[in-house]
Amino acid sequence: MTEKKPGIIRRSFGFLGRLISWLRVIIVNGVFVLMLLFVISLFSSKKMPSIPEQGALILEPKGTVVEQLSYIDPLMNLMADNNPREQETLLADMIDAILLAKDDQRINSLVIKTDYLMRGGLSKLQEVAAALAEFRKSGKKIVAVADYYSQDQYLLAAQADEIYMHPMGGVAIQGYGLYRSYYKEALDKLSVDFHVFRVGEFKSALEPFMRNNMSEPAKEANLGWLNQLWQQYSNAIAQRRGLELVDINTYVNEIDKLLARHNGDSAQAAVAAGLVDGLKSRDEINQTLIELAGGENDEGSFQGIAFERYLWLKKHELKKQQSKNVVGVIVAAGNISGGKQPPGSIGSDTLSELIRQARKNDAVKAVVLRVDSGGGSAFASELIRRELELLKASGKPLVVSMGSMAASGGYWISSLADFIWATPTTLTGSIGIFGAFPTLDKSFNRLGIYNDGVGTTAVADAFRVDRPMNPIAARAIQKNIEHGYQQFLSIVAQGRDMSEEQVADIAEGRVWSGQDAERLGLVDGLGGLKQAIDSAAKLASLSDYRDQLIERPLSPKEQLLRQLGQVLVQPLQGVLSPVLPSQLQQLMAPFKEASQFLQSMSDPAGLYVRCTDCLAP
Questions:
Q1: Which of the residue ranges 252-256, 357-361, 427-431, 553-557 would you say has the lowest mean pLDDT?
Q2: If pLDDT is split at 50, 70 and 90, which confidence band does 460 have?
Q3: Which end of the chain is more exposed for a tag (fewer CB within 10 A), N or C?
Q4: Residue 565 in contact with residue 74, Cβ under 8 Å?
Q5: Which residue in 204, 377, 408, 415 is the catalytic one?
Q6: Would the pTM count as exceeding 0.85?
């Protein structure tokens, strides 16, 4: 039997589909070739970048200082109007560049520029400050310049020997606070029942959905660590600027009176308070920096090199001198959830694969897990913890280095380490667990929508958002939560060589600063990533070693597009601005926080070990 020939309409659509596919391939390949030609022209028409014979290292962080850069599609990085990489600066790059420049004879000074820094974080900036203190030992001068200083910007600038600011600038320091939006009344008006299950008097993650204000236990706990953060900040400023603590507190709490004495001139007020050494216009600052760096470049600016470019060039110089013994560094930054997640988030499968990679690599003699997380899914946290347990069982030492926070799930995955480092202002602990489930049956009823039916068991209607909370299911969830809490206590007790009773005394969801955590036995020492790497090497009995970041390998296509992105986007650095003004971002923050929180609730058992309070400072 002869096969029937497709009709003309089908043949036409088939031809059209093939034509569209063919055109798409041609266009994509054409764009790719054009980009390659552009890169070749750049390399042929310009000299390869190099470190100047004499000049300053320019430390100019942009956006938010992070432990791990968020994933950005390489093609989007190339095509976006605003460079997505302008929104984040890698902490490790800042520290490595500073420490390498310390003994580099070509680098004669360091210039801190803070105008594009949106958020640094006290803990992270303390680690940068420690690196700058090492740099100062070389005798090289550090100068900070900006139009204006926010609180985080000023903490970084205060590490300089001299601080200059524009005559129309100011120093805005306001202290630390934790203020959240509360939705209970709004949920009541919408007839939404938010069913909460938790263990721990201080586990306040779900308070915004249960109350219209902060509970007294939460206020007590939060004010404790907030006061410690402020003490650390004000002490750092006072010591670097030769001031008394009372001077800092007076400047902040009586800024209105200070401005009144200086006719509202915030720049003069900052000088009078001893926070700034001088006021200079941009051209005057440039001239000062030309004298500092010992020359100017072809554009008439001072001779210097951006820390990102310096680090890239310096690492290529040192490549041949690298040791074969590796201390692997694995970054666990962001919310903990199941499956595979992009950089900037912690996926149980993604992170577990990196841990296995370190375990099976014979060159990796020890591992440092850099944790910067307020937690998330209890199940995902346990999957990661188990992989770390297997790593230790293989004989490789495991050291944890805590960043700004390693709380709840972040502490769950940290507790079994051979040694735990934290900064004094790291937020950790928050040993507690919770679950939540909303029901919308009352909301639907108001709209005239009702739900009814039959089931074969007493719990057949459990977990339907359009029906009231099933009481049997509610009691079962609470028991499951209590079991999860006991499991958490047991994990910490085993990892920290404490009794469950000792852990329980400092648990119940309470957040601790790194300083208090050391006193309580939750961490072993106060220090940053460098100290953690050195201690991991010591545990592995290594005298000759190098640290290496362990991360998901890029595909050849991703590598090429990333390199293209670096070449094409670099000339625009310092020009592009955030997509949204900072004021608008701040206005939208409470709603974004609530939305992200609800979207992240994906634990298969509905159990969460997360510290939402830790995300604020």
A1: 553-557
A2: very high
A3: N
A4: yes
A5: 408
A6: no
